[in-house]
Amino acid sequence: MKARNRAAMIWQKGIREGAWLTWDRIGFACLCSAIGLSLGLIWLLVVPNAFGAPNGTVLMDYFSFWLAGRQALAGVPEIVYVPAEFSALQVEISGSETVFGFFYPPTFQLLLSVFAALPYKMAFAAFVISTTALLCLSCRLITGKWLLAACLILIPACANNAFHGQNAALTAALYGFFLVGIERQRMMLAGFALGLLTIKPQLGILVPVALVASLNWRAFLGASVTTLVFAGLSAAVLGAGVWLMFWQQAPVAAAMMELGGVEWGKMISVYGSFRQFGLGHEISMAAQMLVGLGALICVWKTWRRTGDMAVRSASLIGGTLLVTPFALTYDLTLLVIPCAFLIREGLDRGFFPYDRILLAVVIGLSASTAPFAILLGIPMAPLLPAAILFLGMRRMQLIDRARQQEREPDHISGTASA
């Protein structure tokens, strides 16, 4: 009997309430993460290591970003959209056969030219630090606390993004600015951030659904204007022809995904998971579309029914990572934003049962999906955005139920007095 009571207490406190997730433990974990991230970046950029080419070039994703910016500064931006030429350029510069694709629009190339004026390793560090700082600012605007914002940018997914020199911290920050703008009724800020988010178009698939569902035409208009101005600026600086080259390269990106140009284990989509299980392109894409349809319905319902941004952010960003077939492990950094909203609401108004433990699991595993998939054959990545989407939908349901229960006594009292 005592053993049963003890087990029940462990479940109640440890799993249902997550009582062990105290600030001292979280703070210690964040301190370790900060030290590890700092030492890891120093090791990557300063110390000779396995990720370096024979001439010392760090062979991470940022190498293609830096070279893309360099070509923009050199007046030949279109080279990055000719895979054979861009690959040859990478081999020439690094002395290694390892090459990276560049499938981003010219707007992102224009942004990268700002950093490309620096030497490669300095540009790598500047890009990572500045984009992560933007994400920290975004989390500060959401939570109202610098300490909590600092903790959020130290989650494993952010470290994974930093080591790759990828842009997920930037896209997550822009998503955060967009959602803060919506929440605070600053629609031009929201539209501006959303327009800049077009540097990675596949991450904005569900945003129009959210804006139409909430009848938010001002943000829609602001995003449209920003997108057109941003695209026009890139065309004016880089040349209109570079946009044509970008669109002509699109089939190459699609073929790369279909033919396994990126390891399935490094993808976080439903499509990638089905491909890793050995299923074909058509079946995997059908499963992706089915899950995407479910995510779309969830976004429509939440943005139509509630203004609670913890619910909205969880459905939109969780749904976004479920709807796009091409997303990689570092894109899980986007989950920082709904986690920030959910944690803020939990600290202010109390967490719902299992909120803490689910958030801890999502955060803890946010950089471990590739090892699970590659080494163990378990493609668990889609479960993380699915868990965030679940937390958002459940939160909306529980809030609706609580409000209904509050109204019932008044209804009963009114009936009795009549």
Q: What brief labels describe this structure?
A:
418 residues; mainly alpha; 72% helix
What's this entry about, in short?
With 418 residues, the chain is mainly α. 72% of the residues lie in helices and 0% in strands. The protein has one domain (45-404).
The radius of gyration over CA amounts to 23 Å
Q: What is the succession of H and E elements?
A: HHHHHHHHHHHHHHHHHHHH
Overall mean pLDDT score?
92
What is the distance, rounded to the nearest whole angstrom, between the alpha carbons of the first and last residues? 51 Å
Percent helix range: over 70%
Helix count, DSSP H or I runs of 4 or more residues: 20
Backbone shape: globular
Number of strands: 0
Which ranges are low-confidence, i.e. pLDDT below 50, for 5 or more consecutive residues? none
Major sheet: size, sense and barrel closure? none
Percent of residues in β-strands: under 5%
Number of domains: 1
Please state the structural category: mainly alpha
Question: Secondary structure elements and their pairing?
Answer:
Elements: H1 2-16, H2 23-46, H3 62-74, H4 83-94, H5 106-116, H6 120-143, H7 146-152, H8 156-164, H9 168-183, H10 187-196, H11 207-213, H12 217-238, H13 241-258, H14 270-276, H15 281-305, H16 309-323, H17 336-349, H18 355-364, H19 369-376, H20 383-417
Helix pairs in contact: 2-8, 3-5, 5-12, 6-7, 6-9, 6-17, 9-10, 10-12, 11-15, 14-15, 15-16, 16-17, 16-20, 17-18, 18-20
Protein name: DUF2029 domain-containing protein
Main location: membrane
Pfam family, one: GT87
